[in-house]
Every structure is written in structure tokens, then in C-alpha cells.
């Protein structure tokens, strides 16, 4: 299937959020503005440093010391009629979903796991696709996460690849091969255009692994941990080999529409999400805290029926999986709070 007039109209009508105007965000802005995307919203609160110019191709020598968003607006305007809006507010768990809302999809070009988790949680909450990439030294990864993909496609999220609290050195600490940023960033832009237009096969359920030294791009399956076959990959497999070792699939958790009488309800969302409402009597245990002290949780919950809830279900499935692995009878509230509220409204 070609792009065609319909695809061009979809591109012109799309709004794309790009987190970070650095090594990955720079080529993505160039590619999407050249393609004629209707609106690009760029989130970045950093100023340009001289060392950035080695890999952040949208900035120029005269831009050093100025906000990165300034050169994004200038260069994009020289390329097409794409409207560029910039957000200089740093994203947090409290404001990310509100600031990102309104875009059709998000490209995450940040280089810290704290930022990645904030962006991923917001995209999960908003049910928008997240085109995700990372580069380090001579290796790059690109994939698509989506908590609410089209029917028949498994949801895959950041936590299926990297557990909460993962850490990795920033590019500034270990370095990155400059041309690799262009390669990974342009691949991310390609994924965005495929999602916008509906052509091709997005990298949902697959992860592209770039080895700049070998000059290769390979792929491996990436499955939601609740349904991972032996061929699925996890963070420990990447990016060195690209070949996933055989492993048993983790136990999946059943789903329920409503907590049963006497069940212990565990809400694994963040504090700002809890403020919008939760189930009566629910215990608030953020996912990272629950997984970080799983033994204590097991001691409290052993022998009891446990219902785990989050906003749309992804984090709850991960928590329930960990609890079931440890012997706790944990199930997931189907569709999270969004699904629960929807069922109540339609009843």
C-alpha cells in the first residue's frame, strides 16, 4: 500500500509530540517537518552546549547558549509550513499527561530512565502510541509502545522491556557515535509516519537493534511480559546479542470487572493519578515501591484475594504477575480505572 493522497492528508492533519530536541529529537523534527506534518509539539527545557553539536544536527554554532527550542522553531520554519509549538516546562509525573494531551502520538528522545518512565506513564494514561528510541556508544534501539493498540494486537509498554527504576548512563557520560543519532532518529520518524498513515508494519511487538560498528540493523520480538513466549526479549538481552535465550513464560494474571467482596484492592498508580479517584478502600502502593519490596507485600497479602488496579491495566498486570510469581492470588481490574468507570457509566 502506497502513501497516496489519503496518507498526505493524514500527515497534514497530524499533531506529533517530540520529547527532547537532542540527538534523536533533532533528526526526527527535520524528517517530520520535511514530510509536512501539520503540527509538531517539542518538549525541551535545556540550553545548547558546544558538545551537543556533535550529534544534535538541528542546532548551529551560533545557537550555543540559547534554548534548544529556538533553533527547532527556526529550522522547521525554513523547511515547510509545519506549525511548531514548544513547551519549555520540564515533564513530571504530575504534569506530563496534561501537557502531552492533544497529540496523536509521541516520540521519546530523552536519555534518562526517569524521564522515559514519566513519558511512558503519560502515554499509557492517554492511550497514545509512543515511538521510543535510545542510543549509547555505537548501539541503538527503536520500538513502539502502545497501551491501547488496534484490536488483535498485544499492548507492549516500556515496563515490558525495562523494569521500573532501571538505570543507564546518559550519552554525555559514555558518549555516542554522532551518525547513529541520525539513523535512530530517522527510523523513529519513519515509525511515526507509518502510524499516522496506516501503511507498513510499525515496530509494535518488535525492536530494531542498530549496531553502528557492524553496520547492521537486526530485530527481535518484543512481547508483553504477561504473554511472552520463549522468543520474547527483555532488557538483559539487549543490545549485545539480539538473540533471546529460552525462558519460561511468566504467569499471567486473570482479569475481573469488579473486585469481589473481601478482596484487597491495590492501586499501583502515582499520587497525582490517585487524586482523581480510586476504588473504595484501595491501598495505594505505587508500582515501583511495590516491586521494590515485593517480599514485604507477599507477607501481608498471602492467603488473601488481591485485585490490582492502575489507569488502563498495564502497570496492574506487571504488579499482579510479580505477586502471582511469589504465590499471591492476584488478579487485575480489567481496563484499569478507565475501564471500570466506563462500565459503571454504561450500566
From TrEMBL:
CDD domains assigned: RHOD, ThiF_MoeB_HesA_family
Start and end residues of each Rhodanese domain: 259-342
SUPFAM superfamilies documented for this protein: Activating enzymes of the ubiquitin-like proteins, Rhodanese/Cell cycle control phosphatase
Classification via Pfam families: Rhodanese, ThiF
Segments for region (Disordered): 224-258
InterPro entries for this protein: D-isomer_DH_CS1 (IPR029752), Rhodanese-like_dom (IPR001763), Rhodanese-like_dom_sf (IPR036873), ThiF/MoeB/HesA (IPR045886), ThiF_NAD_FAD-bd (IPR000594), Ubiquitin-activating_enz (IPR035985)
Protein name: Molybdopterin/thiamine biosynthesis dinucleotide-utilizing protein
